[in-house]
Amino acid sequence: MAESLSVLLVGHGSRDPRSAAALRDLRDRVAVSVTAEACLRDEPAPRVELAFLELSQPLLEDVLAQLTGEVIVVPLLLATAFHAREDLPGRVGAALADRVDLHARISPVLGPHPLLDAAVAARAQALRAAGHDSIILLGTGSSHESANAEAAQVAERLGFALEVPVVAAFVTRGPDVEAAVAAVGLRGARNPGVVPWFLAPGLLLDAGLRRAAELGIEAAGDTLAADSRIVDLVCTRIAREHSALTPVP
Description:
Blueprint: E1 5-11, H1 17-35, E2 47-52, H2 60-64, E3 69-75, H3 82-96, E4 102-106, H4 114-129, E5 134-139, H5 145-162, E6 166-170, H6 177-186, E7 192-196, H7 203-214, E8 218-219, H8 228-245
Parallel strand pairs: 1-2, 1-3, 3-4, 5-6, 5-7, 7-8
């Protein structure tokens, strides 16, 4: 490509420093994949940056101000809610309004995608191997019903694959852990386990896991950003947008 290419991964941000650290680690692993030509075959390999929408540094606008050429923006968001629908595209558009030296394409969010489902399934299967007879998929919760519905659809697909009850629960908005326990109980389950529907650790996840622990419910280990499948998923998002930027011979 004639213009320089950058990749900008954009996370939500958190007051919990573990969240930014997990996404920096994800950025580093994506950068290795890009350099190894797992995502693209450009020479030289694009730089891979990380920014946040709020609460963590650096902020989106600050990183965009340092870039020129073409940038592929990949939202590190699991579902399409306010930040993906309005906040991110609006802020990217505003940052580029007076820029003739920078052009951006924004990829879809991470979900839905088979690689994301597979990362969730791996955690659920570990709980099943430990003797749990059902799964609670624990997410943040959103005022956008469609975002909560996406988590519920992941739970439905997971339940079909594992042939056990799987129900979505949310920390802030939507059915909570208690409601999910009741829901799987109505289907005969007595020993649910929790799989975090979170990309990175944070205060909201801690709150949800504390409530689950109070109910005697075990949770799976790592959040999703630690899974190698998420690196592969980010690479698919990068490659898709890159193909739209690359002229067809």
